[in-house]
Design goal:
Distance between the termini of chain B: 29 Å
Number of helices of chain B: 11
Number of helices of chain A: 6
Strand content of chain B: 5-15%
Largest sheet of chain A: 6 strands, mixed
Structural class of chain B: mainly alpha
Oligomer: heterodimer
Helix content of chain A: 25-40%
Strand order of the largest sheet of chain B: 1-2
Radius of gyration of chain B: 19 Å
Number of strands of chain A: 13
Radius of gyration of chain A: 23 Å
Order of helices and strands of chain A: HEEEEEEEHHEHEEEEEHH
Strand order of the largest sheet of chain A: 2-13-12-4-7-9
C-alpha cells in the first residue's frame, strides 16, 4: 500500500514542479491507537523529492503535537513569576540530517516552526518583552526534559530512487489529538519545499472508555471510583481473613 | 511491561506502582494514618502530574483504609460512636479550611508560612510523643498513657457525656467533635490528610487506647477519602482509575500486613514508631523548605 502511495506521490510531484525542489510524503500508519498498553510509538514517514540525490539539499521532518496554552512559573528569591504562552505545541519531535547545520539557517528553522526554542507563542503584548527569550528557552528545556520535545540530527535517511525515510519516536506521554507531520527541503539556508500530512492519536478500548466516562459522566465516574475503592478494600479484607 | 494511564496520560511500570502501593499500605495499616503524605510525592516522582497524584491517592487510601479498618473491626478496635462524632466535626472543619485556604492564598504568598508552621507543628507533636512513649516503654507494661490526666480534664467537665464502650471512656461528646473540626481545618489549610494530627490527639487529648485509635482513625479516613475521591472526580476530573486500581492491589496487601504487624507490637512501641515517622515527616518538610532550592523554572500542567 505504501509503495502504491509513494508511486502516486512521485507521479504527482514530479511533473508539476519540475524546476523547483519539491517534497511529498506519506506515513506508514496515519493513526496511532492509545489503549492502556500504549507505551509510545514509532512513526515512520516515507517521502519522495526531486532533490533526494542532491547533497546541497537538506531534509527535515517534524512531528508537531496539538497546540495548547502553557504556563511557566519561575522561582526567584523575591517570589514567583509566571509567564503564559497562549499557544505551544504539546509535542515537537524533529528528525533531520547531519548536514543540516551547514545548509539550514536558524531563522529558516524558526519560520518553518520547527525550532524548539521558538515554538511557543506568547500573547501579543508580551512579544516585545526583553526576557521573552529566557522564558522560551526555559519552556523548550522543560519540554525536552519531559521527553516531549526532541531532536534527532540523524533521523532522516535517503534511500535509493529519490526516496526518503524518517523515523520519529513518539513518547508515551504524548497526548491524544491531531498531529501535524511536516516535511521540509532546505537549500542555501532557506526552505524551498514543504509538505504536511496529519497523524491522529486516538484513544481506543478501555483507555477511551474511561477517559470519556471521566469527562462526560463525572458523577458516575466518581461513584465507580468510590465503589471500586470500597470493593477492592473489602476483597482484601475478605481474603486476608483466611 | 508498561501500562498507559488514561487521565495522567503517561505510561508507568505496574510493578513499581504495586510496590509503592504496598509500602504505603503497610504504613497505613500499622499506624492508622492514610499514607497520602507518602503516596503523593512518590507518584509525582514517577512522573504522575501533581493534580492527578493528589486525587488518585485519595482513591487508593480509601481502599487501604477499608481493608485496614475491617481488620481492626474484627478485633473490636473501632469506636464508631467516637468516629462518627469526629467525622461530623471534620466535615465542617475541612469545609471551612478549604474556604480559609483560598482567602489566605489570595492575600499573598503563604506557601513558606504554611510549610514553616507545619514543621513546627510536626516537630512539637513528634517530640512530645517520642518523650512520652520512651518513658512509657521504660516503665512496666508499655501500655497506654495514664487514664486520669489533667490534660483530659476538659473531656470530663464538659456537658453531653456519653459512654464510648469500645474506648472504655465516659466523656463529653463535645471534645471529639472539636478535635475532628480542628483536624479537618488544619488538614485543609496545610493540604495534607489529617491522620497525623488526629492520631496523637485521640490518644493524648481524649484518652482513646492506642489500638482503638488506629482502628477508629482508619474508620473516619474511609469516609473522608470516599468524599474527597468523589469530589475530585466530579469537580476536577483528575482521578485516574487505572492508576488507582493498580495502587490498590498493592495497598490492600500492605495494609493487611501492617495491621497484623501492629497487633504484635506493644502500644508504646507503636506510639514510638509513629513519633519517629512524624518527626521524619517534619524533617523532610524542613529540608525541602530550607536546604533544597526549588527548580528555577517549573512547567504548569497544561489546561
Amino acid at each position: 500500500m505504501i509503495r502504491a502511495t509513494l508511486t502516486a506521490l512521485a507521479l504527482w510531484a514530479t511533473p508539476l514542479y519540475a524546476n523547483a525542489d519539491t517534497i511529498a510524503a506519506a506515513l506508514a500508519e496515519d493513526s496511532v491507537e492509545i489503549d492502556v498498553d500504549f507505551d509510545g510509538a514509532r512513526v515512520t514517514l516515507f517521502g519522495v523529492s526531486n532533490a533526494a540525490d542532491d547533497p546541497d539539499a537538506a531534509f527535515v521532518v517534524a512531528l508537531v503535537g496539538p497546540s495548547r496554552p502553557h504556563a511557566i512559573v519561575r522561582n526567584t528569591p523575591n517570589g514567583e513569576e509566571r509567564f503564559e504562552f497562549v499557544s505551544a505545541p504539546s509535542v515537537l519531535a524533529v528528525a533531520a540530517e547531519p548536514s543540516i547545520a551547514e545548509i539550514v539557517s536558524p531563522d529558516a528553522l524558526i519560520r518553518a516552526g520547527v525550532n524548539a526554542r521558538y515554538a511557543a507563542k506568547p500573547a501579543p503584548q508580551d512579544m516585545t518583552r526583553t526576557d521573552l527569550d529566557v522564558w522560551r528557552t526555559a519552556f523548550a528545556d522543560l519540554k525536552t526534559e519531559a521527553g516531549l520535545f526532541s531532536g534527532d540530527m540523524d533521523g532522516v535517511r535517503r534511500l535509493e530512487g529519490g526516496l526518503l525515510r524518517a523515523d520519529i519516536d513518539l513518547p508515551a506521554e504524548a497526548p491524544a489529538g491531531e498531529y501535524d507531520v511536516r516535511a521540509f527541503v532546505f537549500r542555501d539556508g532557506e526552505m524551498v519545499g514543504e509538505f504536511h500530512t496529519p497523524l491522529y492519536l486516538e484513544r481506543k478500548g478501555a483507555e477511551s472508555f474511561l477517559y470519556n466516562l471521566s469527562r462526560d459522566r463525572g458523577v458516575l465516574y466518581g461513584l465507580i471510583a468510590v465503589l471500586v475503592g470500597v470493593g477492592v478494600g473489602g476483597l482484601g479484607a475478605y481474603f486476608g481473613r483466611r | 511491561m508498561q501500562i498507559h494511564l488514561p487521565i495522567a496520560e503517561i505510561a508507568v511500570d505496574p510493578l513499581v506502582i504495586i510496590a509503592i502501593g504496598s509500602g504505603v499500605g503497610f504504613v497505613s495499616g500499622l499506624f492508622g494514618v492514610g499514607g497520602g503524605f507518602l503516596l503523593t510525592p512518590l507518584l509525582m516522582f514517577n512522573g504522575v502530574p501533581a493534580a492527578v497524584a493528589v486525587s488518585t491517592q485519595a482513591n487508593q487510601v480509601l481502599a487501604t483504609s477499608v481493608a485496614g479498618a475491617s481488620a481492626h473491626w474484627r478485633h473490636g478496635a473501632v469506636d464508631t460512636r467516637m468516629g462518627t462524632l469526629m467525622i461530623a466535626g471534620g466535615m465542617v472543619g475541612s469545609g471551612l479550611g478549604v474556604w480559609l485556604f483560598r482567602i489566605l492564598r489570595q492575600s499573598g504568598d503563604i506557601d513558606a508560612a504554611i510549610a514553616g508552621s507545619y514543621v513546627v507543628f510536626l516537630g512539637v507533636i513528634g517530640s512530645l510523643m517520642l518523650w512520652e512513649s520512651v518513658g512509657a516503654l521504660g516503665k512496666a507494661g508499655g501500655g497506654d498513657p495514664r487514664r486520669r490526666r489533667a490534660l483530659r480534664a476538659w473531656t470530663r467537665v464538659l456537658p453531653f457525656k456519653r459512654r464510648f464502650p469500645r474506648s472504655g471512656l465516659y466523656i463529653s461528646a463535645i471534645p471529639p467533635v472539636i478535635i475532628g473540626f480542628v483536624v479537618g481545618l488544619l488538614a485543609a489549610v496545610l493540604g495534607i490528610g489529617g491522620g497525623f494530627i488526629l492520631a496523637p490527639a485521640m490518644v493524648y487529648l481524649l484518652g482513646v487506647p492506642t489500638r482503638v485509635m488506629v482502628g477508629t482513625s482508619l474508620f473516619q479516613i474511609v469516609f473522608l477519602t470516599g468524599f474527597v475521591t468523589f469530589l475530585q472526580a466530579v469537580v476536577n476530573q483528575t482521578v485516574d482509575l487505572v492508576l488507582a486500581v493498580v495502587l490498590m492491589v498493592g495497598g490492600v496487601i500492605g495494609a493487611r500486613l501492617g495491621a497484623a504487624a501492629g497487633q504484635k507490637l506493644k502500644a508504646a512501641e507503636l506510639r514510638l514508631l509513629l513519633a519517629i515517622v512524624v518527626l521524619g515527616m517534619g524533617g523532610k518538610v524542613a529540608w525541602d523548605l530550607f536546604a533544597v532550592a526549588p527548580a528555577e523554572f517549573v512547567l504548569e500542567a497544561s489546561t
